[in-house]
Design brief:
2 domains, single chain, 14 strands, alpha+beta, Chloramphenicol Acetyltransferase
Length: about 425
């Protein structure tokens, strides 16, 4: 999965990143920020991806003791201008191969407050890995994950090791090829309609995809789930389906295709992306008043994932053999063919995630990716919801774009508010 994320990054010229913002009612001590940044090198973020010298070889993680850069903005901003900094952050480089794998930024706010922002390459770490790395840094834990020092991999010894490893995985590659051919008819239409990325896309300006943050009281949300007889995750999924309906992201039958990443992370897991996924087709009208059918479908999808695995995992051994041009073609089949809606349920995060430089008044987490207008049109827009809990508060980040319909935060916010009301939820939007 990590190598697949890296191949996608190189093929498309862009890749997802995780954006975290901590809000403080006071200025931050520069020494505390630098100490937090240095401590991050001692955990899962202190690594880079080193390529194999063989075109079909496996890449590997190597240690990176260099902390990410810190950008200090000196001119105070009003709180409402803070989202506009995302555009500037998107233009700052992240590179899981050459570094930096993450970076920090500090923005003073009018009135004496301050925002600490963090951008992490999703190839380096998913939400769970990033959260654990932050919690470890705050607690001062120095963990040895066993990442070797970077090496000159063109040496005869390294070439021999990578060649042996490639031969050892040939049976897996053969099985992956069979799995790919069995599912080829499902992908053929998407592949035939896709087009290669233009080299001009790198020069086109990025679109500022609208973001809305929602803060809810966890206890109130729990009471609502009790009234409906469902779990909290089901309630968030139903809210997501209602949001998709209001944005027009439904198929010909009026259903919403929810794609949910499922964490596969275990203790001492070194993977950057320990994820699988399930897909649930949702009737957004039916789930408004009674989401119990949605909960049954989700449980069935999770049971199928446990028994049979997902569609992607069997073909992962083929990743080293996928040329970049094919990866670009496959993007359309994977993401844009039938208006998928992403819904990431990160669950409860460690309390230390909320206090990188002391207790923050608010933590916002959002996925960021540098899309051009042409790419968003080719993908049919996007909608992604990330939900997490810290203490007694439930946070949801809504990222949505629909050409000529939802292109600004002012257009997205009322849709989010109406979808919350559909499910009997109350939240403060920011």
């Amino acid at each position: 999965m990590d190598q697949g994320s890296f191949v996608g990054l190189r093929a498309l010229g862009r890749g997802p990143a995780l954006h975290l913002t901590w809000l403080y009612p006071h200025a931050l001590d520069e020494a505390a920020v630098r100490e937090f940044n240095e401590r991050l090198t001692r955990g899962l973020l202190g690594r880079l991806l080193q390529r194999s010298p063989l075109p079909w070889g496996r890449h590997r993680w190597v240690a990176n003791p260099v902390s990410g850069p810190v950008t200090w903005f000196r001119d105070p901003l009003p709180d409402e201008r803070l989202p506009h900094l995302r555009r500037e952050l998107l233009d700052l480089p992240l590179d899981p191969e050459h570094g930096p794998g993450w970076r920090l930024a500090v923005q003073p706010l009018e009135g004496g407050g301050c925002a600490l922002m963090m951008l992490v390459s999703h190839t380096i770490a998913d939400t769970q890995a990033t959260s654990q790395a932050i919690a470890d840094a705050v607690a001062g834990r120095c963990l040895d994950h066993g990442f070797p020092a970077p090496s000159w991999r063109w040496s005869p010894v390294m070439l021999a090791c990578d060649s042996v490893e490639s031969l050892r995985t040939l049976p897996d590659v053969s099985r992956a090829l069979v799995a790919l051919l069995r599912g080829a008819h499902k992908r053929r239409a998407g592949v035939s309609r896709s087009s290669a990325r233009s080299s001009r896309n790198r020069l086109e300006p990025a679109v500022d995809v609208p973001l809305v943050w929602v803060v809810m009281d966890a206890a109130a949300s729990k009471r609502r789930t009790s009234d409906l007889g469902v779990a909290s995750n089901t309630l968030i999924m139903a809210f997501t389906a209602r949001l998709a309906l209001r944005m027009g992201r439904v198929d010909a039958s009026g259903r919403v295709k929810l794609v949910l990443p499922v964490s596969d992370r275990r203790s001492s897991d070194r993977r950057g992306n320990a994820l699988r996924s399930i897909t649930v087709m949702v009737d957004p009208d039916a789930c408004r008043n009674d989401p119990r059918a949605l909960q049954r479908d989700m449980k069935a999808a999770l049971a199928s994932l446990i028994r049979h695995g997902d569609d992607l995992s069997p073909v992962l051994p083929l990743i080293p053999y996928v040329p970049l041009w094919l990866a670009r073609h496959l993007e359309r089949a994977a993401l844009g063919a039938d208006l998928p809606v992403g819904c990431s349920l990160a669950g409860e995060l460690p309390l230390d995630v909320h206090r990188p430089c002391g207790e923050a008044s608010l933590l916002q987490i959002a996925p960021l990716e540098r899309y051009t207008a042409a790419e968003l049109e080719r993908l049919g827009g996007l909608l992604f919801i990330l939900c997490h809990r810290v203490g007694e508060r439930l946070f949801a980040t809504v990222s949505g774009y629909a050409k000529d319909r939802v292109t600004t935060r002012a257009e997205l916010a009322p849709i989010v508010r109406d979808a919350l009301a559909d499910m009997g939820l109350c939240g403060a939007l920011s």
